[in-house]
Amino acid sequence: MIEINNVTFNYSTQEEQDVPPALQNVSLHIHAGETIAIIGHNGSGKSTLTKLIAAILAPDSGTILVDGLHINTDKNAIWTIRQRVGVVFQNPDDQLIASTVIDDVAFGPENLGLPREEIEQRVREALDLLALTEFAQMPISELSVSLKQRVAIAGVLAMRPQYLILDEPTTMISGKTARHLLETVQHLAHERGITVMHITHFMHEITNFDRVIVMDKGHVLMDGPPATIFARADELQAIGLDVPLVTHLGRYLAAQGWSALPNVVLFPEQLLASTRDYLNSLTSTPLEEKRSATHQEVTRPVSDLSAQSQRSIEKEETPGKSLFELKEIFYTHQRNTPFAQETLRALTLTLQAGQTTALVGPTEAGKSTLIDLLAGLIRPEAGVYLFEGKNTAEPSFKIERLRSRVGVVFQSPESQIFEETVGKDVSFGPRQKNVPLAESRRLVQESLEAMGLPYEDFRSRYTYALSGGQKRRVAIAGVLAQQPDVIFFDEPMAGLDPRGRNELLQLISSLKQRSNLTIIYASCSLKDVVELADVVHILDHGRLIESGTPRAVLASAETLHELDIALPEAAEIALTLRRDIPTLRTDILDLAELVEELQLVRPEHQEQSEQFEQEGKATL
Amino acid sequence: MIELSRYIPFGQYVNNGSLVARLDPRTKVISAVLLITCISFISKFSAFVFCLIFCLVLQQTSRISIVYILRSLSPLVALLIFAFVIQVLFYVSPAHTPLLWQWWVLSISWEGIFIGVLSILRVIFLYYLATMLTFTTSLVDLTDGMEVLLAPLQKIGIPVSAFIMVLVIAFKFVPIFVGEIERLIKAQAARGMNFGQGNLAQRVRKLMTLLTPLFVSAFKRMKTLTVALEARCFGGRPGWQRSKRRTLKYERIDIWAFTLVISLCVAAVIVNSISPL
Question: How many contacts, defined by CB atoms under 8 Å, are there between A and B?
């Protein structure tokens, strides 16, 4: 058991700046075998709390007891605590030490000075638990992020901890992979009795945890089972958090008169309770017929929407100006080396000017390579690349001209800032072009302000002192100041919390309003792009799988799910429900549409008959 | 165009399960040291022929593409040619040797060319051996091997284990930093910077802009890594002793390899002392 009593902690730098402590009078009891989710915004004290528990930090006041051990009990207590409390950090690259999988997993036990046979056994067990045995001899640098994440967990498990802390492990991975990871973690808790503390921003991940702790500004705001916490939706929203979409859905449906729903819906399956009887009788009237009947009867928003999607299809069909045209493009990363990897295979793709296009695919689908290629940073190995109808391979084609027309916001854009001050960094592009000073200043001001950063306030700030979100915006402003006709965004949301995501999404959407600006947005999640994109191209292993409007693409949600692409939550729920309601559509963009679609499944007749019965009883 | 990792083979281990890759790292480290000493010593072409034959055998058994290794040498070619020219021109030949050409202190003689070619050969062989060692030996193997070989130093109070850990971590960051530099260069190129243009000073200045962001990110990573190391119970506490999962074991093949290397060195030295050329 972990007992935290009245703990306060302050980072020394914060003290100087007169900022309230990172943690203030926190008291918690954590029991063996519990699964606990800790939620809260960046800076709410979640990570500080876990570092205190793992004896990496020591509290300023108050006490923390891990199985009765206190940091000061004796000189070895700190190491015993660190062995019992395992921590998996956000970025696996920062915590994997050895160069092969098996050696990294052995690193912890080796530090404990265990005998060789014992280490062997623990390593084998940990690899087995995380299904890593076949990767044991692989070099870590060749693994995908999600595999690295699993290695990091295995490395911690090999130390046989009682408590496992996962610090935002799902911000770097998505979709199916993230779900697998959480399933493994749940399994560990139930089979091995390990206490799991999972820090996250994503509410839908934590519905099956035993306990949820909500942190805000260094305090524990709420503490209880998910159903209790998510019943307090208004309070959560007040601090910028939210409840899972499925909980919202449950509330809507209950308001629409669905019966037999729990007060707080946590799983899509719970929605089925009130439709099950009806579903059993469904064989007689297939849903499709019913749907078409409803469509003819009333003009529902659904049909409005289908009209809308028709419009966008028309828009697509009108021959727009094709800006980029790729024909049978091949590209191999690290070509002619033993590490060669084919990243683009026979890719044929046309991107229109003025449209917002999304390139969606799992990791290693070739999105980043494609962006580098389109932006003229690398040349195709084979195939034809036309920019505005001109072949880029022709000697007369100036690659600098292409580069000056496009701007790229790379993955983790904060690391692409290279100047000391914000003003200097944003003006980098104009300075390279020798734009006159007054004009350059105007561009910097305009770009910063378009990103919601007041010019006077920010221009002379040091770039390294900015927050992560601000850095991202400065990086985007730097690209805007180049006045590009095309902007590429490569996974701009990765690693941001929901609040940061929403802000950035709004800023990017506002760029759409600019005339003549073509936006190309790469992501491993359809979630980010459904509202933004006119056209979506699905990529996998360097090949084009599918193209269409977000809605059209969502119709094959099952395939996307298999490809490890994160779907919008509403579509995800629809996909889960489809297991029981096979006719349910998955091309659903938001909650309203899902409610709409589910209404079609609603057991109206049955309810009516129930109503009659009740009325009958009443009259009797 | 911008793909640094293609040109930096340093520390890249090619895990192809070849015979050379499977050798005990101690065998490889000691052999490399022996061969390097031998190559520094010999000064006759005939002795180099022995080394060439050995390298061909090594190349064949390692199953690594020769093209790849030669390309990794390409950045050095200009330097080698420069060194060769300087060495030939400034070679001071003994009094009676006939000169092919002479001007002021510069001269060309057959002997100068001979010595120049020998040094170039030496550098290429040394480069080849060092590269082959990193290509066929994983970092862990290499550091494990070195730790065992240097263990006697631990007894006289030199912190070998700590030193080796620093090496492991430094090597671990090589590919990560290469990736980071690549990204920064791409970011600058995308914003209108042209690295290929300008005189040397301008180019150097352009590269300097990469340093600040690289250092900032390096420090940040180091900070997180320290926490990660501590969380995994790595750290100096009184009486702390790490143990090892891996054990190094000499196999029969190691003995064969050793015999081959030693006999080659002996043969090369003998040939070197009796052969005229």
Answer: 188
A444 vs A271, which has greater pLDDT? Answer: A444
Taking the C-alpha atoms of residue A141 and residue B176, their distance in angstroms, rounded to an integer, is 8
Domains of chain A, residue spans: 2-243, 247-304+576-606
d(CA A109, CA A69): 21
Distance CA A166, CA A173 (A): 13
Assign A535 to helix, strand or coil: strand
Sign of the Cα torsion A587, A591, A594, A600 reads negative
- Quick check: B183 and A416 CB within 8 A? yes
Cβ contacts (< 8 Å) between B68 and chain A: which residues? 336-338
Q: CA A280 to CA A289: how far, in whole Å?
A: 17
pLDDT of residue A135: 92
Is the Cβ pair B184, A418 closer than 8 Å?
Answer: yes
CA gap B128, B138 in Å, rounded = 17
- Identify any residues that bridge with A520 across adjacent strands, giving them in sequence order: A357, A488
Q: Which residue has the tokens 């002619």?
A: A336
CATH class of A2-243: alpha beta
Neighbour count for residue A196 (Cβ, 10 Å): 22
**Rounded distance between C-alpha atoms, residue A160 and residue A84, angstroms:** 7
Classify A495 as helix, strand or coil. coil
Question: Could you tell me the strand order of the sheet in which A535-540 lies?
Answer: A406-409, A486-490, A518-523, A356-360, A535-540, A543-548
- The single-letter code of the amino acid at B235 is G
Summarised one tens digit per residue, pLDDT across range A141-189 is 778 888 898 999 999 999 999 999 998 888 777 777 888 888 988 988 8
List the single residue in A with minimal CA-CA distance to B229.
A95
CA B170, CA B165: separation in Å to the nearest integer?
8
Query: Could you give the residue ranges of the DSSP H alpha helices within chain B?
Result: 19-22, 25-41, 45-62, 66-89, 110-136, 139-155, 160-190, 200-208, 211-231, 252-274
pLDDT score at A279 = 58
Token pair in block for residue A327: 């024909």
Q: How far apart are CA B271 and CA A359, in angstroms?
A: 65
The residue in chain A having the minimum alpha-carbon distance to the alpha carbon of residue B193 is A432
**Among partner residues A95, A108, A116, which is closest to B247 by beta-carbon distance?**
A116
Write down the residue that tokens 């057959």 correspond to.
B110
Q: Report the residue count for chain A.
A: 620
The answer to whether the complex's ipTM is over 0.90 is no
**What pTM was estimated for this model as a whole?**
0.79
Average pLDDT, chain B: 84
pLDDT confidence bin for A602, thresholds 50/70/90: low
Residues 531-590 of A with CB under 8 A from B: none
**Helix, strand, or coil (residue A580):** coil
CA distance linking residue B275 with residue B141, whole number of Å: 39
Q: Strand runs (DSSP E) across A179-321, as ranges?
A: 195-200, 211-216, 219-224
Give the residue among B22, B168, B231 at the shortest CA–CA distance from A140: B168
CA dist., res. A590 & res. A302, Å (int): 12
How many whole angstroms separate alpha carbon A495 and alpha carbon A170?
9
Rounded Cα–Cα distance for residues A76 and B87 (Å): 62
Looking at the complex, report in whole angstroms how far the Cα of residue B204 sits from the nearest Cα belonging to chain A: 15
The reply to whether residue B234 touches residue A338, judged by beta carbons under 8 angstroms, is no
Would you state the structure tokens that stand for residue B107, as one six-digit string? Answer: 């001269």
CA distance B141 to chain A (A): 10
Cβ contact A459:A498 at 8 Å: no
DSSP B158-215: --HHHHHHHHHHHHHHHHHHHHHHHHHHHHHHHTT--TT-S-HHHHHHHHHTTHHHHH
CA-based max dimension of chain A: 92
Between the CA of residue B262 and those of A284, A379, B27, B30, B265, what are the distances in Å?
87, 48, 11, 10, 5
